[in-house]
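Q: A reviewer asked whether we had any structural model of the full assembly, not just the individual parts. We don't, so I'm hoping you can provide one. Inputs are below.
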Amino acid sequence: MAEQEQGVLGTPVTRRRMLQGSTLAGMAAFLAACGTSGTSPSAEPTAAPTPAPSAPPASTAPSPTQEPTPAQTPSAELNWANWTYYIDVDENDPNKHPTLDRFKAKYGTTVNYQEIVDDNDTFFGGIKDALSGGQDTGWDIVTLTDWMAQRLVRLGWLEKFDKANMPAFVANLKDTFRDRSWDPGNDYAAPWQSGMTGLGYDETVTGPLTSVKALYTDDPRWRGKVEYLTEMRDALGLTMLSLGLDPARPDRAGCDAAIAVLKDAQDAGIVRDVKGNSYAEDLKSGDAVLAMAWSGDMIQAVIEKEGLRFAIPAEGGIIWTDNNLIPKGAAHKFTAELAIDFFYDPENAADVELYVYYLSPVKGADEVMLQKLPEIKDDPIAFPPAEVRARLVAFGALSEDDEKYFNDQFASVLGVG
Amino acid sequence: MGAFLRRNRRLVPYLLLAPGLLWLLLFYVYPGFQMAITSFWSGSLEKGFTFALENWTNYTAALSRFSGYYVRSIGYSAAATILTFLIAYPLAYTIAFRGGRAKNLLLFLVVAPFFTSFLLRTISWKIILGDSGIVFGPLKDVGLLPEDFRVLATPVAVVSGLTYDFLPFMTLPIYVALEKVDKRLVEAAQDLYAGPWRRGGTIVGIVLGGGLGLLLGQIFGYWPPFLAVGGAVAGAIIGALLISESFVRVTFPLSLPGVFAGSLLTFIPSMGDYINAEFLGNPDTRMIGNVIQNRFLTQTDYPTAAALSFILMAGMLAAVAVYARALGTEELTTGRV
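A: Here is a predicted structure for the entire assembly that you could use as a starting point for your response.
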């Protein structure tokens, strides 16, 4: 759920309008992209991505987009399951996605892009029977969070990328995402967006906060008005940071310690509720004044309510990543690879980013964003400064047994165990 | 076809039953069977699940760990059923006997909320009941309520949500039953001195109202004597002023089939509901539906989820059987005067 967007009622376009106020940039991007279809010969078919020399920043020059091996042709359709508000939207027509349109034009394909993923578990529940039976799920790309991607890798339910078709991915994937412990060689998961989990609070009530410990401290200013996240890795991760433990290396002892802190705070009456992204509504209505919060929600919330703040605590924050995956047996694997690769062009990645305002995994995208919209560097949520980014930790991989244990323990925090 | 049916008269009922039976077989019996198998699994998603009869321990383990959630669900559902009854009965009575030409419009208004999605209706309660929302905000501003008073994230909010959601399911069956009541029976009763019922109504009102208040107080976790006194006072007033003997002896008994149907239609879905507990409650108010959802979707613990569902289903079947025996459906549907 961490990746859920601005709530049902959120209208992220407001921010774009506020910062930008013009559609010219989109037009320019369109024109620029038209020029990128270079025709250099086939890419080197490396099994593992060679850490590419970091792409020259801020260059508007076309990224190393190479045409795929000529043997295959793009299929007529591509089915992509993604979250809501997770790709750029045309300002005049909410059903049009400019970057996707460019992809369609470039490869002469159609894309059935569905904003159908509401949370990882429910979506997994919908595709698991097909996958375990060895059938096509009907999706060629599914965009799911790290831990769900890990589970699918463990289950062997993903197609391995043919990186000969994905030169931009090989070249432009940021180093932090290379060779993650659960996907060495980046064979199965291509990061789509990352977001941050930190503190959301109403500064007019709580005063300025910098420590994550506030979440577990009984204080009359926020007693009974604190909310925790239902997403296990976010709630446990932040709590582990408050205890000085490293969420990147989660173990059962750390889990137990964090659960104890969470339970104590609940028993002490500090906590009002444990919920998914509706905490943002509560912060806006004042029903909550301090919460574990996701950057994507807060970017909108701070505009809508004076005094709301989002902060990555001094102890650190959690970074999570949603990944584009190709489910086993996908009918249009080749086209899916082309699509995943298409969004590793910094130009295209920046266009998506300037709409969704998450963190891009694409080298060079930040620079393109700064060019297109210089004001963004003053926005600490959409464009966190380097020292904030340095404090972000990704929750480490869990074995199946540990994942079961963590979830089972965490059920008591959720009130269902 | 017509000739065929005339020659095979005995087939007709089976043919008429066939679509319903097929539907039940496909979407109830078969999944139920699957679920029964699942509840005897052991293992995990990645290592694979295996079936073994020794895994009946799934049931005992589930029951011993989660029995508290069944108790809570029964409490909330019972409270919601009683409250819907208290709201729906006067409503249905008014529509049936005093509706006049507005009857159809009033009935339409009863079902009107169904035109909005269930989820949206539940979420709109969050706005209405918000700590500084349109109800409690002004009350807090004038100092009638303490600043930290809240209804959201408490059992009251969950039960209120359930009550609201299932109100039409209680109202409509009671309305149908009351509509059928022969008015001449009421007149006959009145001719036979079944008039106002002051003393009896007061006593019954105090006992019933007080008892209900006590019960709801227990479930909501409020100070029970407070609600019991309130309930007793309200019961006494209603009993003394609004209840006549003809109602107690004629109208109410004749409407019991509607009450029976309505309370089943309210209680059973409430037991399985998890939306209200999720959106209006907090971790202290989760119901068995939330546990099953968590076990099934989040934890991929399909055996426990299946066992919990089966226990819920079996428990409900047993409860309904007892209830039907107590109220005697057969007698009720044929009417007892």
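A: Points you may want to mention in the reply: Chain B touches chain A through 33 residues (CB under 8 Å). Chain B has a mean pLDDT of 90.
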